[in-house]
Design goal:
The complex is a heterodimer of chains A (about 300) and B (about 160).
Chain A lengths: L4 H6 L5 H9 L8 E7 L5 E4 L2 E6 L2 E3 L10 H11 L4 H10 L1 E3 L5 E11 L2 E14 L12 H4 E2 L2 E2 L2 E5 L5 H12 L2 H4 L5 E5 L7 E2 L2 E2 L8 E4 L3 H11 L4 E7 L2 H12 L3 E7 L19 E6 L6 E7 L1
Parallel strand pairs in A: 10-16, 10-17, 11-14, 11-15, 15-16
Antiparallel strand pairs in A: 1-2, 1-7, 2-3, 3-4, 5-6, 6-7, 8-9, 12-13, 17-18
Helix pairs in contact in A: 8-9
Chain B lengths: L1 H40 L3 H11 L2 H16 L5 H12 L7 H13 L5 H48 L1
Classes of the chains: A alpha/beta (about 300), B mainly alpha (about 160).
Chain lengths: ~300, ~160
């Protein structure tokens, strides 16, 4: 990936003061920037190469004595830029707690929520933003590929890790590898269910990331709706999706697995007995479980389990 | 020369009175387009402005073009400020009165914020205000349009007689 590409993707969405700060310190490590946390009246924090730093006029530091303190203006300007001054067009995303930027980068949003009938109808007084920079790392799926593909068949696989450990990057690369007919000795069709525009980051019908030539992407649709839909209409060999979160997601995955599609999905957690499984006995449906961590940087494979 | 100048001044005032009605009516139609763009396709403000440029005339076209260009530049200014700056830049070239500009600026303050329902309500309120403005502009144009034209002519003749 081009070294300056992440800078081009991120800088236009930063407030003038934060842009200036990065210019002043001559920051040029955009390719290794994982997160940028902007909190009202709190120090600005950057995650570079898996390490968190405060940012001050003198550079990155673990000491917050002179660090830049973000203001509500910084947040308001960033919100203005990421919503393109059209909050109504992004309201659904804001209520879900994030907005996806071009390039698959995602801004997490926190503020005061207004609830009606148990649902968030608006978020105002936004006080925290977490700009998460996505990375395309080709080859990270190579290590797990022999474990999840054998005898011409993909195995139902669940990738488990805490946030920021490279689940999405791994899934994206797995999709790309399965699309390589020379690796699989046959043409495999993958359905990529990209609810949050992070996996493939499809814009105007074109994916920002290389997710392979034989795959198709359904974006912005809930997994519980998209998975049965593609299973019935597009007859994929494999369904790949990110961040299973609720019972409906698990139900949809089980439906697809029972229908004969292989499922490769990810979920937040530390191990296979995680509460995120929503009480579902995953062992009945998943054949492989891959556990990731950040021990040696994002994407560290802790364990590949046969279920 | 004096008679001609005064005549032209009166003629311009008359034209401007009628042009104001056209501009207000056009702005009303543009708001109907904007309403559809927002409610049916959740179109963002910048592409919506591009669409409005196609439908708009005179000062309205200048306003929508100015806002669209500034949004495209993405300088991090709030939309309300961009809108106000552009409207103030364009006010001298058009036929809008101060009271019209006030209403247009008020709309700019709420454009883009809130959810779709809020946007539609804001547009409806703006359209109601525009309707009132159109009615009063029509009455003003009919009453004073021809009068200003005649006043210009007679003032010119009067001035010449006075000088002689």
């Amino acid at each position: 990936m081009d070294k300056s590409l992440k800078k081009i993707e991120i800088v236009p969405f930063l407030s003038g003061n934060i842009k200036k700060l990065f210019d002043n310190i001559g920051f040029n490590n955009w390719d290794n920037l994982n997160e940028l946390r902007v909190n009202v009246s709190k120090p600005l924090i950057a995650d570079v190469c898996g390490e968190r730093y405060y940012i001050s006029d003198s550079g990155l530091s673990k000491n917050n004595s002179n660090s830049y303190i973000s203001s509500s203006d910084d947040i308001n300007i960033i919100m203005e830029l990421i919503t393109k001054s059209s909050v109504y067009a992004y309201n659904r995303h804001i209520n879900s707690g994030y907005i996806t930027l071009p390039g698959g980068n995602r801004v997490g949003i926190c503020g005061n929520c207004n609830i009606s009938d148990g649902k968030i109808i608006s978020v105002n007084e936004i006080n925290s933003l977490n700009i998460r920079i996505s990375h395309e790392k080709k080859g990270v799926g190579d290590i797990v590929f022999p474990d999840i593909y054998a005898n011409g068949k993909a195995k139902n696989t669940l990738i488990i890790s805490p946030p920021g450990c490279g689940k999405t990057t791994m899934l994206r690369d797995i999709a790309r590898i399965f699309s390589d007919a020379s690796r699989c000795n046959k043409i495999i069709i993958c359905a990529i269910i990209d609810e949050r525009y992070e996996l493939a980051c499809s814009r105007g019908g074109i994916t920002c990331f290389d997710v392979g030539d034989n795959n198709f992407v359904i974006s912005g649709c809930q997994k519980s709706t998209a998975i049965p839909m593609v299973t019935r209409c597009m007859s994929p060999d494999i369904i790949i999706t990110d961040e299973l979160g609720n019972k409906d997601d698990f139900k949809a995955i089980i439906y697809a697995a029972k229908s004969g599609c292989a499922v490769i999905a990810s979920v937040h957690g530390i191990n296979e007995t995680n509460h995120e499984m929503q009480g579902y006995d995953v062992s009945s449906y998943f054949e492989k479980i891959i556990i990731l961590s950040r021990r040696n940087g994002p994407g560290t494979i802790e364990q590949i389990m046969e279920v | 020369m004096i008679i001609f100048s005064c005549f032209m001044l009166g003629l311009r005032t008359k034209k401007c009175r009628f042009l104001r009605v056209d501009e207000l009516e056009n702005l009303f139609s543009c708001m109907t387009v904007l309403e559809k763009e927002i409610s049916y396709s959740l179109c963002e403000i910048e592409p919506a402005m591009k669409k409005l440029i196609e439908y708009s005339i005179y000062t309205n076209k200048e306003i929508f073009t100015g806002v669209q260009k500034k949004l495209e530049l993405s300088e991090g200014k709030p939309l309300s400020q961009i809108w106000r700056d552009v409207v103030n830049e364009c006010r001298s070239s058009g036929c809008y009165l101060k009271e019209d500009i006030e209403v247009i600026n008020q709309f700019g303050n709420v454009l883009g914020s809130g959810d779709v329902d809020t946007q539609i309500k804001n547009i409806d309120i703006f359209k109601t205000k525009l309707k009132e403005k159109i009615e009063s502009a029509k009455q003003t144009a009919e009453k004073t349009g021809n009068l200003s034209f005649k006043i210009g002519l007679y003032a010119g003749i009067g001035l010449v007689i006075f000088i002689i």
